[in-house]
Design goal:
alpha/beta; Rossmann fold; six-stranded parallel beta sheet; 12 helices
């Protein structure tokens, strides 16, 4: 899929720079020509000698190198590649590009490029969560920069954990494949929601739907840029997509708004219809009366209807309907009520084993009528749906 492609890898200054060596190896295994540029800070973690040995090419380190810049080397670097990858993308590099600074080789290349840019952020969780970094991330995303990660986990610093780990090399390779490999959805942005939402009763209890989050994984394989907004699903998200993790319906709606505009939206999440309006700030205790606490419920925002009828409506909006009776009738009415283009309906009554299972049997409801699909694995459902979306957007 990547043979013959050219990638410029900008290595930023962070402990995750060591992963760049494995990333180079993985790309070279796939026939990718890799050129590398290193910041001064990156050279404190890995050496140009190591990077050059793996790329089998000259490593660029200095904006003012007389030999490299005799033919305006930073402009040439920025234009000759098919894709510019920044891994690790430090808070400093993100800030420089967001503000248009160009005072070293890496930032000058990023500002001068006319090719797609993929960033793999890596930093301390508090740095990633800082309002300045979040603003810079939003600005870069709006400017068209693509992101992979960061992931959650243990950090290099002792005792530190959270969101900030650089995506693993194979995850970055998958994202690169999604951007460079030929496919019917190349250049398209698709928003996917997945998984359940958890609506708190108190700090330790919640209301949720039974959902594994297993649908909606095949769009990247067709070349789309995918923003994957997921609730607390029981399976990991697909590789090579921008993952936005949420807990509640309100958080999911905010994440969906932030991800728009998009060419298509696949709203596969099993969003809880209600939340507890009087959720406890502390764990609710038994009072000895034998009666449960009184819970007041409020209706959650209708994310599918909001997207279908909003000003930033994608060209194609696909909803899902999990029903236990009169599946086609209920789904047909839902499509009209919500204002979406398609509804993917399935029977989730307990006897089917579909809710939370590995297989699905769906009926795709469109304006033209109902298209019944046979029972198959959820991965195959996702692939067929992705192909149908690609055909609709063609």
């Amino acid at each position: 899929m990547l043979a013959g492609k050219r990638v410029l890898l900008i290595i930023g200054g962070g402990i995750a720079a060591y992963k760049a060596l494995d990333l180079i190896r993985r790309l070279r295994e796939r026939g990718v020509s890799v050129r590398a540029a290193m910041t001064a800070a990156a050279q404190q973690f890995v050496t140009p000698l190591s990077v050059g040995a793996l790329t089998a090419d000259h490593v660029f380190t200095d904006l003012f190198d007389r030999q490299d810049e005799q033919d305006v080397g930073h402009i040439r670097l920025s234009r000759e590649a098919d894709l510019v990858v920044v891994a690790p993308a430090t808070a400093d590099l993100m800030a420089k590009l967001a503000q248009g600074h160009a005072n070293d080789l890496a930032s000058a290349v990023l500002l001068a490029t006319d090719k797609p840019v993929l960033m793999a952020p890596a930093m301390n969780p508090r740095m990633w969560a800082h309002p300045a970094t979040r603003r810079n991330h939003a600005v870069l995303a709006q400017d068209g920069v693509r992101f992979i990660g960061p992931n959650r986990g243990e950090m290099a610093e002792s005792g530190e954990a959270g969101e900030g780990r650089m995506a693993e090399p194979l995850e970055i390779v998958a994202a690169i494949e999604g951007l460079l490999a030929a496919g019917p959805l190349n250049g398209r942005h698709v928003l996917v929601t997945s998984g359940p939402t958890h609506e708190p009763i108190d700090p330790v209890r919640y209301i949720a739907n039974r959902s594994s989050g297993a649908q909606g994984t095949a769009l990247r394989d067709l070349g789309a840029r995918v923003t994957f907004v997921t609730g607390p699903a029981s399976i990991p998200p697909p590789l090579g997509v921008e993952v936005v993790r949420v807990e509640t319906a309100a958080q999911m709606l905010a994440a969906v708004h932030a991800a728009l505009p998009a060419d298509a939206a696949v709203m596969a999440a099993a969003v809880a219809d209600w939340r507890v309006a009087n959720a406890g700030a502390q764990k609710m205790k038994k009072d000895g009366s034998g009666r449960p606490p009184a819970l007041d419920f409020a209706e959650n925002p209708d994310i599918l209807a909001t997207v279908s009828k909003g000003a930033d409506r994608p060209r194609l909006v696909v909803g899902f309907a999990a029903e236990t009776e009169s599946v086609v009738d209920h789904a047909t009415a839902k499509r009209v009520r919500k204002g979406c283009d398609w509804i993917v309906a399935n029977d989730v009554s307990p006897a089917t084993g579909i809710m939370g299972g590995a297989e699905n049997a769906v009926t795709v409801i469109t304006e033209a009528g109902a298209e019944v699909w046979p029972r198959m694995g959820k991965d195959e459902v996702a692939r067929r749906l992705a192909a149908k979306i690609a055909e609709a957007l063609a």
